[in-house]
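[User] I have long wanted to understand how a fold can be written as tokens. Those tokens are not coordinates but codes from a learned vocabulary of shapes. Could you go through the record with me and say what the backbone is doing? Thank you; the sequence and its tokens follow:
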Amino acid sequence: GSRKYDPIWEHWMQIDEDGKKTKVRCLYCKDHLQLKNATKCRKHTVKCFQSPLHVKKRFGIKKKMIVTISD
């Protein structure tokens, strides 16, 4: 079957190395290089100092608000 396209790849550049697994580089800091893994790339993009705020928000983990009621 075909994989669904992940929008995270709009923020990463693919680096092809002869005969090796595909690596990707962060388009913002240009320093971070890793194996092509959407989850790890998403985590880096959110933490990356160079990525814009709207990108961080798009891929950031949405925390649920917990409301505690006390007497």
Summary: The chain has a mean pLDDT of 85.
